[in-house]
Amino acid sequence: MAYAARRLAVSVALVWVVASLVFLVIHLIPGDPAELLLSQGGIAPDPAAVEELRERLGLNQPLWTQYVAYMGGLLKGDFGLSLQDEHPIADEIALRLPRTLELVGMAGAISVAFGVPLGMVAALRAGGPLDRALSAWASFALSVPVFVVGTLAILVLAQELRLVSAGGYVPFARDPVRHVALLLVPAGTIAFGLGAVVFRVMRSSVLEVLEREHVRAAQARGVSPAAIIRRHVVRNALTPVVTVVALHLGTLLGGTVLVEFVFNWPGLSGYLVRAVEARDYPEVMGIVLVISSLFVLLNFVVDMLYAVIDPRVRHG
Question: Which pick of 51, 123, 182, 246 has the fewest CB atoms within 10 Å?
């Protein structure tokens, strides 16, 4: 409990630091949001209209006043209003975030489901034909851009074989089967490369654990290979895999733009691109803060998993 409390306190402090940095960086970007919003076709807007909009949005307040108001809003779950349509940003994030989390989570599950066992098999048969074939697949998967994988998936699975739709989104409550069908292809597109990463890390980790003294001692005592793998190899080999998967999932939260675009998946990344293009500062701040906070949360979960996998971490 003490270890969890310490890690939780550090995570909360990190979220506060991230929120402060996001606020400062966004407000240091050159350009007046009110003037940009009122500009049409390169024509300078009326100064009176710009000033009125700045006052309505609170942009004419001192920076520290805006900061206090912003942090106070965050404590209440209020990310402010969009500069484009004055729609509550929290509502839009709440609508789109589960879709991106679902996509990233499914991609992570597929990657682990395939990468971990294949990495273990390759390590146990290191140097053999199967190991070489799987390693060649991993090298290929890591070299192919995700948008190429997505485009080929649509071409083959949707247009040629007609096994799935080319893209889109259907709420789970409306049609669970179609929702899952539309989810699996973009998630599999992400998992194609991520699974190769998991495979490589698992293979290297298993090979490293097999060379440790306690494993060699167990082999010398005549312990069966299955028992050695179950008792000594799997748990120790999973630690770096957990780290890699968590870091990649955190990166994917804001990096699924191409996949969401190719498959027309209405997630958070597409919303971020739209906000950046419109220079809608409150939207950008809200999305970046949510993604950063989730990244911090993932690291907290990884720390807790470390404590479960290796109890020595709690006393380190």
Answer: 51
